[in-house]
Design brief:
Blueprint (H helix, E strand, L loop, with lengths): L1 H33 L5 H23 L8 H9 L2 H32 L13 H4 L1 H24 L2
Helix pairs in contact: 1-2, 2-6, 4-6
């Protein structure tokens, strides 16, 4: 199950990016052939880009490839004992859980409020666009809980 999740998590951003590319190429071709640009490709690409951003952030968070400044943290690791480093790491991960829980809760409320508003070209509910916020928040919360478990397990050794 975990292998399937990891493959889907890595493949989904690539699929969405490919979708954006194909849809925008269709728009360019139709604009060049008929001198009329379609409305729906731009809107679909905008929605897909939002989803790509949030799904990509989940992947980058899980693999620790997101942008961060490590100089201070690396300095602390050399100067402070491992138990204190573990405590600081747990506090840091707890703050991440707080913010991802905040994102999940209020993202869900916001997307629920927009379910009766539809997009102009695609005529689909706006809540589909914003539903990625609580989805990514839940995934980041779960990943963070797993990181806390690994940190506590490593710290007790």
């Amino acid at each position: 199950m975990k292998k399937i999740y990891l493959k889907v998590e890595a493949a989904l951003p690539a699929i969405i990016f490919s979708l954006i590319f194909i849809v925008m190429m269709i728009n360019i071709i139709t604009r060049e052939l008929s001198s009329n640009a379609l409305d729906w490709p731009i809107e679909l690409s905008r929605y897909a880009l939002v989803w790509l951003t949030f799904l990509g952030s989940v992947y980058l968070f899980r693999t620790d490839q997101h942008i961060r400044v490590d100089a201070f943290w690396n300095y602390l690791r050399r100067k402070i004992n491992p138990t204190t480093i573990t405590i600081i790491e747990i506090i840091k991960l707890s703050v991440i859980i707080f913010f991802s829980g905040f994102f999940s809760y209020y993202g869900y409320i916001f997307s629920e409020r927009l379910k009766f508003f539809s997009s102009p070209s695609l005529n689909i509910s706006q809540s589909y666009l914003y539903m990625i916020v609580p989805i990514s928040g839940v995934f980041i919360t779960l990943i963070t809980l797993f990181k806390i478990y690994k940190t506590l397990k490593k710290g007790s050794e």
